Amino acid sequence: MTATGFDNELMAAARAAMANAHAPYSGFAVGAALRLTDNAIITGANFENASLGLSLCAETVAIASASAAGRLHDVMAIALAGASRKDIPSASCVPLTPCGRCRQILAEAASLAGRDIQVYCADAEGLNRATYTASELLPHAFSAAAFARGPNM
């Protein structure tokens, strides 16, 4: 991986994590992989629930796994890949980007890590790609600073 290049190894891990997705309701399998400061990789896959609002996104699962391992401060980058149906040709797919909730979670992780997080996005086959930073995806993220305003906002 280079500072400005696309992290192919991380994307391969995200694509492999898609195989672990539990998506029986939407059929939308997503895999995510985090790169830590020591180059370790932590993966996650989406986990749907019959009450769809209680489902977990792959990015959230990966970030929660890093947190559970005491490594949240070490997150440098995340890759995610996914697609809803295998019968849609990759040429017509756009790179998968995080949903709003995941963008907020990534913004919080970036704040805790003290660095912006690279976000590598791709379709299920990894052909259509885009690279962002967490701050580009959510430029005005809600943060702990909002709580510091006190009662006389």
Strand content is 15-25%
Please identify which CATH superfamily we are dealing with: Cytidine Deaminase, domain 2
Secondary-structure-based class equals alpha+beta
Task: Provide the CATH top-level class.
Answer: Alpha Beta
The SSE order reads: HEEHEHEEH
> How is the CATH topology named?
Cytidine Deaminase, domain 2
Distance between the termini: 44 Å
What can be said about the biggest beta sheet? 5 strands, mixed
Average residue pLDDT: 89
Low-confidence stretches: none
Widest beta sheet: strand line-up: 2-1-3-4-5
What is the β-strand count?
5
Total number of domains: 1
Number of helices: 4
- Cα radius of gyration in angstroms: 16 Å
* Shape label: globular
What would you say the CATH architecture is? 3-Layer(aba) Sandwich
What helical percentage do the residues reach? 25-40%
In summary, what is this structure?
With 153 residues, the chain is α+β, with helices and mostly antiparallel strands. 25% of the residues lie in helices and 21% in strands. The protein has one domain (8-142): 3-Layer(aba) Sandwich (Cytidine Deaminase, domain 2), CATH 3.40.140.10.
Task: Give a topology summary.
Blueprint: H1 8-17, E1 29-36, E2 41-45, H2 58-68, E3 75-83, H3 100-113, E4 118-122, E5 129-133, H4 134-137
Parallel strand pairs: 3-4
Antiparallel strand pairs: 1-2, 1-3, 4-5
